[in-house]
Task: inverse folding
């Protein structure tokens, strides 16, 4: 038994315009939201910078381990 294709109601655009959540805020609320978003972005940038510094420290420490006496022995054995 074959079925006929049916339109997908979910794929249709709504007839009324959907407002974004920022449009429903007043100017003071938008300013507060923007301030919090900027603070979050600043914290994110600081976190990424800390992670980069940590990776660099770990890389240098690993390099020091390979450059010393035991690093020479390790390289000689492998």
Result:
């Amino acid at each position: 038994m074959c079925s006929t294709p049916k339109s997908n109601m979910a794929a249709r655009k709504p007839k009324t315009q959907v407002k974004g959540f920022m449009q429903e805020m007043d100017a003071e609320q938008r300013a507060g939201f923007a301030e919090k978003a900027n603070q979050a972005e600043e914290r994110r940038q600081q976190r990424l910078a800390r992670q980069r510094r940590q990776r660099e420290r770990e890389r240098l420490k690993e390099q020091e381990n390979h450059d010393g006496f035991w690093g020479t022995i390790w390289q000689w054995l492998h």
Observations:
- The radius of gyration is 29 Å.
- DSSP finds two helices and no strands in the chain.
